[in-house]
Specification:
Elements lengths: L15 E5 L2 H13 L3 E6 L7 H9 L2 E4 L13 E4 L8 H8 L4 E2 L1 H8 L4 E5 L4 H15 L5 E5 L5 H4 L8 E5 L2 H4 L9 E4 L13 H9 L10 E5 L3 H6 L6 E6 L7 E4 L2 E4 L2 E5 L8 H16 L4 H10 L8 E6 L2 E5 L6 H9 L6 E5 L12 H4 L4 E4 L4 H10 L4 E4 L3 H11 L5 E4 L12 H20 L1
Parallel strand pairs: 1-2, 1-4, 2-3, 4-5, 6-8, 6-9, 7-8, 9-10, 10-11, 11-12, 16-20, 17-18, 17-20, 18-19
Antiparallel strand pairs: 12-13, 13-14, 15-16
Length: 462
């Protein structure tokens, strides 16, 4: 294996390392560590015969244990454990590793250690993917040399992308709280926190732990680094007093020494950048995302012309209020990435209520939907599916939504909504729930919705 661009680190040579959980990031981490000379053991729950990644790693000479997670595994003296971000720390194997004082990291830490390119790290409860995508597009529109690469939670394993970058490039990395709980020396040159709300409290033991995980983004940053923070949130303003990094605020409520909106325009310091209504995606939340992205672009020396071009043409992110198509004057949007109530409220804020038919439902995490009621007032109809459909129906009844309908899943929900819709209506899949009761992930749920749209469209052609 030719180590063409990455830092050639020797600290893992002949070290016994356990990689827990494969999927994309675990596979990437195991391969990287193997190439760095580590003695890698991989443990994954999926049986070997169905486990393509495990088969590939075995052929490279990596030790593979699949189908279960035997605690005895830890009898070998591992010097490090790299875990898949989705596996909670309450997992028996992780608990046993902690008791043995084996350090536990996630693969973004490995990515940082080998990356020759500086890192821009983006985290927050909502808007991460949109902001990350905007930043990557802004930089690639305006950088005079080098390329910006998407990586991290956005679907490109950080430890794979980090192998390919040069010092002139930039790694634009979306980071979840799960990934950030497993960092030690990780050090972005620019950090972004889009916002902090309640989320993933089934994974984190408390809200405080969740906030601390997000805030870990800045723990290795120095005064030469920049931390871009949402000044609309009092909690973040308080946290800002505890960082070594140079803080650049963004706000839609006041003029700040950073990015802000004023009188219908985006500003950075005293420069007017573009009109808010020229932004290519709807919704107040996207105004905040754009402010964070503008701050990064200005810090990286991107011209106002390049910023205008990019933000005017920005049409959103797959599964995040993504325009799917139009049929008989009815417009269809896929916002499958809305896996919590707040994300759905934000999506609804981008539309006129009486023209919206909302498709929602999914995994029951035990929460109610009272918070959604104000956003449902005035909505034309809802089509509900999944484990939470009855709970959502109660919220819709309280909001006096005139049409409350049910479906088996996201595909059938689109068909039901299409029957109800009139020209000028928007059919919005924005589930307010995780997808795991019916789908392997939110992408699969969004893809099912898109396929259902294509099917109806093709039928109409016949």
């Amino acid at each position: 294996m030719e180590m063409k661009n990455m830092k050639n680190i020797t600290k893992y040579q002949n070290k016994k390392i356990l990689v827990l959980g494969l999927a994309k990031s675990g596979f990437s981490a195991a391969k990287l560590l193997h190439d760095l000379g580590a003695l890698v053991t991989v443990n994954d729950g999926k049986p070997f015969e169905e486990n393509r990644e495990a088969q590939d790693l075995l052929s490279l000479g990596v030790k593979v244990i699949t189908g279960s997670h035997p605690i005895e595994l830890l009898d070998e003296e591992f010097s490090l454990l790299v875990k898949n971000p989705g596996i909670p720390y309450s997992h028996p194997l992780l608990q046993a590793a902690s008791a043995k004082h084996i350090p536990i990291i996630t693969e973004v830490e490995l990515a940082y250690e080998i990356s020759e390119a500086p890192i821009i790290g983006i985290t927050g409860t909502n808007g991460k993917t949109t902001t990350t995508t905007m930043i990557e597009m802004l930089l690639n529109q305006g950088l005079s040399k080098g390329t910006a690469y998407l990586s991290g939670n956005i679907g490109y394993p950080a430890s794979s992308v980090a192998r390919e970058v040069t010092p002139e490039d930039v790694l634009v990395m979306e980071l979840s709280s799960f990934q950030l709980m497993g960092i030690r020396t990780f050090h972005p040159e620019i950090g972004v926190i889009t916002n902090l709300y309640d989320a993933h409290l089934d994974y984190h033991t408390s809200r405080d732990e969740y906030v601390q995980a997000k805030w870990a983004l800045q723990k290795e940053m120095t005064s030469e680094d920049y931390l871009i923070l949402n000044w609309n949130q009092a909690e973040i303003r308080t946290l800002a007093q505890t960082t070594q990094a140079t803080v650049i605020p963004f706000s839609t409520q006041e003029k700040v020494a950073g990015a802000y909106t004023f009188d219908g325009y985006f500003y950075y310091l005293d420069e007017c950048i573009l009109a808010i209504d020229e932004l290519g995606v709807p919704g107040q939340h996207n105004v905040e995302n754009a402010l964070a992205a503008i701050a990064v672009a200005k810090l990286k020396g991107i011209s106002n012309d390049a910023i205008q071009k990019t933000l005017k043409s920005f049409s959103g992110v797959p599964h995040r209020t993504q325009f799917v198509g139009q049929l008989h004057g009815i417009t269809f949007y896929n916002d499958s990435k809305a896996t919590n109530i707040l994300a759905t409220k934000m999506a609804l804020s981008g539309f006129t209520a009486e023209n919206v038919i909302l498709l929602a439902g999914g995994l029951d995490r035990g929460n109610g939907f009272d918070e959604l009621i104000p956003s449902l007032i005035g909505v034309k109809g809802v089509v509900l599916f999944g484990e939470t459909k009855q709970k959502l129906a109660m919220a819709a009844q309280q909001a006096q939504v005139p049409h409350i309908l049910y479906a088996q899943d996201a595909s059938q929900a689109l068909e039901v909504a299409y029957e109800l819709a009139q020209p000028g209506d928007n059919v919005l899949l924005s589930p307010a729930n995780a997808s795991w009761d019916q789908y392997p992930n939110f992408e699969a749920r969004g893809d099912a919705f898109i396929h259902a749209f294509e099917k109806i469209k093709n039928k109409n052609k016949e």
